[in-house]
Every structure is written in structure tokens, then in C-alpha cells.
Write a structure and sequence with these properties.
Blueprint: H1 26-41, E1 46-48, E2 58-61, E3 69-80, E4 83-87, E5 95-101, E6 104-110, E7 116-122, H2 123-136, E8 146-151
Bound molecules: zinc ion.
């Protein structure tokens, strides 16, 4: 396993659409392990493959609910409600902004064994699923910020993904 370099805003890889994963290969399995390691090293709660320069539809999420979610080729199939709050992104370091997201989402994806499953998320998990799925379409949260993008205070612990 290895920590990979996180691409930051301005890098065009972050604005490209990702390709679906067709089969699990040792290379892709290693990518997923590296994505978790990179996310934990950066104290993030989610990471999408393009953030480490790979244009594949892969997301990892750990919102500290005791689960390590791997979402391959994810598709949001249901969403309800709304939550408005601060959001941050590992690819937009030192910044935060207010974004409104659904309060509940259901996503259909493949796990690391390429088995289909559904994941339901509320609150932070719903926000992380939406944020990461947007990365796979080449979208950053800064496009959705209400008002201005703010500088984060050094002592603040923002949820970054
Ligand atoms: Zn992000």
C-alpha cells in the first residue's frame, strides 16, 4: 500500500468524467487500498479515484461509523430532503463553503468483489456519497457553494472529502 498524491483544484483530471470499472484486477484492488491509505493520511472522510489521478468510477468513504465503504460504478437511485452545511474537499485545501445536499440518499454500487449492493446514507454519509459521486462526473463542490468560499481556520477540523 502507498499514499498517493492528492490532485488539487486546477488539475484538469478533476474536471473529467470517469470510466466504469469492468472487472476487478490486482491493479484496481491496489488502487482501492491506496485510496483508503491516502484518505486516512489526509484525515478525510471520503476520496474519489480522480483525486489521485485515476479516471475510474471508484469511491471510498469512512465517516467513522465503523464501516469502510467501497463504491464502484455508483449510481444514486433515490434522494430525499435537504441539509445545508459546511463542506470541504481534499482537492481544495484550506477552503470551505456552504453546500445544500440531500439529507438521505440511496446509492447502488459494486463492492470490491464486484457484487452489487445498495447503501443508504443520512447526514454526513449522504453528503459524502453526493460529494464523491460528483467527483466521478468531474464536478467539484465549489460549483455548488452558496455565497463565498471561505478560508478554513487552522485549528478547525473540517470534514474533507
Ligand atoms: Zn472532494
Amino acid at each position: 500500500m502507498a499514499v498517493r498524491q492528492i490532485r488539487v483544484i486546477g488539475d484538469e483530471v478533476l474536471n473529467k468524467k470517469c470510466k466504469p470499472v469492468k472487472e476487478m484486477t490486482p491493479r484496481t484492488a491496489e488502487l482501492i487500498e491506496d485510496m483508503f491509505e491516502t484518505m486516512y493520511e489526509a484525515n478525510g472522510v471520503g476520496l474519489a479515484a480522480p483525486q489521485v489521478g485515476v479516471l475510474k468510477k471508484i469511491v471510498v468513504i469512512d465517516v467513522e461509523d465503523g464501516n469502510q465503504y467501497v463504491l464502484i460504478n455508483p449510481k444514486i437511485v433515490e434522494q430525499q430532503g435537504a441539509q445545508t452545511g459546511y463542506e470541504g474537499c481534499l482537492s481544495v485545501p484550506g477552503k470551505t463553503g456552504i453546500v445544500t445536499r440531500p439529507d438521505y440518499v440511496k446509492v447502488r454500487a459494486l463492492n470490491e468483489n464486484m457484487e452489487e449492493y445498495e447503501l443508504e446514507g443520512q447526514d454526513l454519509l449522504a453528503r459524502a456519497i453526493c460529494h464523491e459521486c460528483a467527483h466521478l462526473d468531474g464536478q467539484l463542490y465549489v460549483e455548488l457553494v452558496e455565497g463565498e468560499l471561505l478560508d478554513t481556520e487552522a485549528e478547525e477540523e473540517e470534514e474533507e472529502m
